[in-house]
């Protein structure tokens, strides 16, 4: 065959220029390819056009049918669980997955120092506490902090450990098949296209198993949650209001898990402390919920902890959360990016039982009275027509302009107890200047109990001193080791051997144990007596009702292991602090 005409569209009479154009659309580059074939290989592709089109159609049909079959199989023979990034299950599952044997074998993984790649740094740094056994076993070797040499050895270990953050391996994008309870499961990690920020938000996990019975998927997710909860133990989980990027919506980010603070370590009038805890307990009791619901009263409780900075407001809230095993949700109302919608959506995502802590609300710019603009909002948004609000708003009038950014007072009030406000949560607000707060914020229903924190009284000073210098269980490894030994007759002896079984020898070891126990008790009692005598002496030097607990604690911490030195220097410290405070006052006046 010979073709002199290099224009393929004219080689065959049946192929018009519009046909060529269409082919160009269907097969981009068709004109160029066909020119090349005709000129150099002397092959006219239009001859095979029919076959090519048939082949393409066949390919498309096969693809369509196979996709249809896959969809059919997926629908009728596969069960799938979808896990979203903005849900805690994502974190549970990634944590669990990073500990599965599959992650040691797979060749496609995301390597990182965070379990799910999205945890905040704080949570990550907290990882040592997560595994208390490890930190105790590895670092609190007997005698570890008793001498400078021991410290150097311990510190060298810490420094070398800190250089290597534990790596975590989680499944990468795409599909992964792994075995769970002898059944194959498929995990698909998918991102949606878009700009980088959106990709982060739109990430999804799909966990699938064969068969219509999805119980195995529930088992996996329950196990993942269990593993995560086990890891938390009795620690207090802290969430913080957070957003991914400027303009995105807010969510509660799990940022920390801390060992609970014993209530006894918060120095406050015992009655006040107990009233606070009893009130929360009473509120959480199921009968109270019923009582509220039967009377149509919104089931909410609010507290205001007020007093000078460093007097223990946050500490009390944290201790209460630990004591009652409640999660703590922290929110900073100072953020200009936080508006009423975001605040309201954050509140609507709160679990049924939790403590929400709004710290230093007087600094959040919402202390001013509600202005006229705000009044209109309140009326239109709160359809209950709350008489109290309307009366009060009328009284306050339009004194202040509405706030341009961030949360307004009316916005906060709506979220706290508007018609759409969440129920069940405990709201704790702290303030250094309660007198500057709007009366509307403090009215019953929003604040049901106020606790005033004052400068340390003489008793409080004594208590703070005792708390610092009294020996506590677990203060030193020897104490805990010896107490363990005291309480365990079968504990290993110093030579590493386990004591002999019950016989004459065991009776002797029991006797030794009892003697050691008595000696230990005597030692503790005499130490306590000494510390309480010193505490009295300290309290007689430091004036009552002048300094905060934080200031006193800060001073005592400088003499952590030398109570006598603390007493000796107390007078000078008092003088210096007085002068500093005076200078600060003069400067601010
Ligand atoms: N009453 C107290 N009992 C025990 N420790 C206290 C007390 N008050 C303060 N502290 C100690 O002082 C530090 C600061 O306390 P905390 O944050 O609870 O004070 P605060 O009143 O919430 O302060 P701010 O108003 O600045 O938020 C903590 O280390 C805490 O242990």
TrEMBL record:
Record's subcellular location: Mitochondrion inner membrane
TM annotation in the entry: none
Any one Pfam family match given in the protein's UniProt record, by short name: BCS1_N
Domain BCS1 N-terminal, first and last residues per copy: 53-266
Compositional bias ranges of the Basic and acidic residues kind: 508-522
Chain spans, region Disordered: 117-148, 475-522
GO molecular function, one term: ATP hydrolysis activity
Gene Ontology terms: cellular component: mitochondrial inner membrane
Keyword vocabulary terms for this entry: ATP-binding, Hydrolase, Membrane, Mitochondrion, Mitochondrion inner membrane, Nucleotide-binding, Transmembrane, Transmembrane helix
Major subcellular site: mitochondrion
Protein origin, superkingdom: Eukaryota
Record's compositionally biased regions (Acidic residues): 120-130, 138-148
Reaction equations catalysed: ATP + H2O = ADP + phosphate + H(+)
Family: Belongs to the AAA ATPase family. BCS1 subfamily.
Protein name per its UniProtKB record: AAA+ ATPase domain-containing protein
Source organism per UniProt: Penicillium angulare
């Amino acid at each position: 065959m010979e073709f002199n005409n290099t224009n393929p569209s004219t080689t065959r009479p049946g192929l018009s220029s519009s046909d060529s154009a269409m082919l160009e659309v269907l097969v981009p580059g068709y004109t160029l390819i066909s020119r090349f074939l005709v000129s150099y290989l002397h092959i006219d592709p239009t001859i095979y056009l029919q076959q090519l089109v048939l082949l393409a159609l066949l390919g498309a049909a096969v693809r369509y049918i196979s996709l249809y079959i896959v969809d059919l199989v997926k629908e009728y023979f596969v069960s799938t669980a979808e896990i979203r990034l903005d849900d805690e299950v994502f974190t549970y599952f990634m944590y669990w997955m990073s500990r599965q044997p599959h992650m040691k074998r797979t060749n496609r993984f995301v390597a990182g120092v965070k379990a799910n790649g999205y945890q905040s740094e704080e949570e990550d740094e907290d990882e040592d506490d997560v595994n208390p056994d490890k930190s105790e076993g590895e670092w609190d070797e007997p005698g570890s902090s008793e001498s400078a040499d021991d410290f150097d050895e311990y510190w060298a270990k810490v420094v070398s450990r800190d250089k290597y953050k534990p790596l975590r391996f989680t499944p990468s994008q795409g599909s992964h098949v792994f075995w769970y309870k002898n059944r194959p499961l498929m995990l698909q990690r998918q991102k949606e296209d878009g700009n980088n920020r959106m990709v982060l938000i739109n990430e999804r996990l799909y966990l699938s198993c064969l068969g219509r019975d999805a119980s195995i998927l529930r088992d996996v997710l329950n196990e993942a949650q269990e593993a995560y909860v086990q890891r938390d133990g009795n620690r207090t989980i802290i969430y913080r209001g957070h957003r991914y990027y400027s303009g995105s919506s807010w969510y509660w980010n799990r940022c920390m898990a801390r060992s609970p603070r014993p209530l006894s370590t918060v120095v406050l009038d015992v009655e006040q402390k107990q009233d606070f805890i009893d009130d929360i307990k009473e509120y959480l009791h199921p009968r109270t919920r019923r009582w509220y619901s039967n009377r149509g009263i919104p089931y909410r409780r609010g507290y205001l902890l007020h007093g000078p900075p460093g007097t223990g407001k946050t500490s009390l809230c944290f201790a209460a959360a630990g004591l009652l095993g409640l999660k703590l949700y922290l929110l900073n109302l100072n953020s200009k990016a936080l508006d009423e919608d975001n605040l309201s959506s954050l509140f609507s995502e709160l679990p049924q039982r939790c403590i929400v802590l709004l710290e230093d609300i007087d600094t959040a710019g919402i202390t001013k009275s509600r202005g006229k603009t705000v009044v209109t909002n309140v009326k239109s948004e709160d359809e209950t027509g709350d008489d109290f609000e309307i009366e009060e708003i009328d009284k306050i009038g339009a004194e202040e302009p509405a706030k341009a950014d961030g949360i307004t007072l009316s916005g906060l009030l709506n979220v706290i107890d508007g018609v759409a406000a969440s129920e069940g949560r405990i709201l704790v607000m702290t303030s250094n200047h309660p007198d500057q707060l709007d009366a509307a914020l403090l009215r019953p229903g929003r604040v049901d109990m106020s606790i005033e924190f004052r400068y340390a009284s003489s008793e409080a000073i004594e208590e703070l001193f005792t708390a610092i210098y009294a020996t506590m269980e677990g203060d030193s490894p020897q104490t805990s080791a010896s107490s363990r030994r005291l309480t365990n007759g079968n504990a290993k002896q110093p030579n590493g051997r386990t004591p002999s079984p019950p016989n004459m020898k065991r009776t002797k070891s029991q006797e030794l144990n009892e003697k050691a126990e008595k000696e230990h008790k005597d030692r503790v009692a005499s130490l306590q007596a000494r510390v309480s005598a010193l505490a009295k002496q300290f309290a007689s030097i430091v004036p009552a009702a002048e300094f905060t607990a934080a200031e006193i604690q800060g001073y005592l911490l400088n003499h952590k292991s030398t109570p006598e030195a603390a007493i000796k220097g107390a007078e000078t410290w008092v003088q210096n602090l007085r002068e500093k405070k005076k200078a600060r006052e003069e400067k601010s006046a």
